[in-house]
Amino acid sequence: MKNILGREIPETIQGYGTVKPFQGAFASLGEVEKKSVKLKSTGPKEEKVLSSIQEVLEKCSLQDGMTVSFHHHLRNGDYVLNMVLDEIAKAGVRDIKVAASSIFPIHAPLVQHIQNGVVTGIYANYMSGPVAEAISRGELKNPAIMHTHGGRARAIESGDLSIDIAFIAAPTCDTYGNINGVEGKAACGTLGYAVPDAVYATKTVAITDNLVPYPACPIEITQEHIDYVVKVDSIGDPKGIVSGTTQITKDPVGLKIAKMTAKVIEVSGLLKDGFSFQTGAGGTSLAVAAYVKELMKKNNVKGSFAAGGITGYMVEMFEEGLFESLFDVQCFDLKAVESYRDNKRHQVMSASMYGNPHNKGAVVNNLDVMILGATEIDTAFNANVTTGSSGMIMGGSGGHSDTAAGSKLAIVVTQLVKGRLPIVVDRVTTVTTPGETIDVLVTERGIAVNPLRQDLIEKLKTTNLPIMTIEELKAMAEAMTGIPEKIELDDEVVAVVEYRDGTVIDVVRKIKD
Questions:
Q1: How far is CA 344 from the centre of its chain?
Q2: Which residue, 230, 288, 182, 295, is CA-closest to 47?
Q3: Most buried residue among 104, 134, 258, 308 by CB atoms closer than 10 A?
Q4: CATH of domain 47-241
């Protein structure tokens, strides 16, 4: 069958089940239900601190076929996922489903567990490195399920993703399970992605390398959700937290894109008191923030909030008084960690508060401007950040789809050609974010505005910006590179790409070696 975007998707997928096809970005809004949670109460004489992960697995009655979850706030410095899965393998348990909010190259040992049948299913919002490559080659028994950040929270809260045991890497934890991320040798800042897991998992385990006397202070995830606590030598390397470049690009092409993007924002009329903003950690995205900073100062604009994964640069804008507050779901660098620890207006938001479409209002709904990237964008403005030019999985939505849907102005910034391949294509390899939620594409050669935004097209006509159709940008790119050969992929579905509401927006098919 085909979904509303014309993507061909099986009606049922082995290892996934019956497909609910994507029907539009806002088609599923309305009344929803949350799952009920069964808890085993803890009595006044019971101790939560256990001696080892092995003891935890015994206490939690881990069995074949269960689902275990992990958060990714330690990013490419995380030790906990590998540590726990090694113990699960030693226990002889198989057919485990791993619900990790994101997977990084450091998680390469997971490939062996996939090959040995210990792990047969994966849920993730983003994945890169050896695990993503193994899944792309069809090594995982069941298709991976790829969520958005808000979509994962929605799936957990609704019961679509039922977690048997959540393992929370806790930079600091007390003896009764109160956790924070701002103290300890692996301090990573906010723990927004771990919150739904802690609240809705059948059992929740804190794994810490900084066990402190009761009570910990401050407390971010509270004792009422924690069943057991285990102390280990190290939960991870905080140097692995740093994401992307976290430095403003010095590349003239990137700076040109950023300057034009800032002008689009200014002309949109959104850059006024109360302005809200989110951008990624890449060099061009941070350059956009730098130009926006200049405009805010020049026009004496006082913003309301900046949001997302927070970088040191956004902290600088906040500390200079350009924003009243920061909403932080994860810290992208150590400067952001320090800011969250020290400034009460630098606030945590859970993944659900950030981007879940099925609650009473996510933060993304209040965003004015979102700066996005893309590996491909097609003439219908559908964006791909899931697969690369070969069809290999190399990312995932993360907050891409959530913020595009919620913000008033979603802008994709990218060079027109990368690696001698055009970024604008007739049809993206994988749809991550639907075109109806992407407003503008800014490249160094020109700017395309989604025809759905006639209001913005009229405003931009008054400028000297190089406005053109997306078809003209595509033709320009192909004149530089030629028309690329179509990727040949196998029919086997290796990953299911869910939109934030749980419908299937696309599938990833096995690459051909």
A1: 24
A2: 230
A3: 308
A4: 3.40.1080.10
Contact 162, 198 (CB under 8 A): no
- Neighbouring CB atoms inside 10 A of 61's CB total 11
Domain ranges for the chain? 47-241, 252-487
Question: In this structure, what token pair is assigned to residue 442?
Answer: 């800014």
Over residues 273-290, the mean pLDDT reads 94
- Could you give the CA distance from residue 219 to residue 202 in angstroms, rounded to a whole number? 21
Over residues 204-214, the pLDDT tens digits come to 999 999 999 99
Contact status, residue 72 vs residue 95, Cβ threshold 8 Å: no
| C-alpha–C-alpha distance, residues 120 and 118, integer Å | 7
d(C-alpha 268, C-alpha 109), whole Å: 47
The string of DSSP letters for 389-411 reads TTS-B----BTHHHHHHHSSEEE
Give pLDDT tens digits for 357-370.
999 999 999 999 99
How many Cα neighbours within 13 Å face the side chain of 329?
Answer: 28
Whole-model pTM over 0.90: yes
Cis omega before residue 215 (within 30°)? yes
Q: Give the strand order in the sheet containing 383-384.
A: 383-384, 376-378, 424-425
Same fold, 47-241 and 252-487: yes
User: Average pLDDT of 394-423?
Assistant: 97
**Cα 216 to Cα 1, 83, 470, distances in angstroms:** 53, 25, 54
Candidates 84, 80, 128; CA nearest to 103 is 128
pLDDT > 70: what percent of the chain? 99
Tell me the pLDDT band of 37, cut-offs 50, 70 and 90: confident
d(CA 287, CA 281): 10
346, 318 in Cβ contact below 8 A? yes
| Strand ranges for 426-475 from DSSP E | 440-442, 447-449, 467-468
Place of tokens 């997977």: 103
Whole-number pLDDT of residue 247: 80
Residue 342: count of CB within 10 angstroms of its CB: 9
Count of CB atoms situated within 10 Å of the CB of 214: 11
Lowest mean pLDDT among 33-42, 231-240, 293-302: 33-42
Q: Given CATH 1.25.60.10, say whether it is the number of domain 252-487.
A: no
Handedness of CA 218, 219, 223, 224 (dihedral sign): positive
- On average, the pLDDT of the chain sits at 96
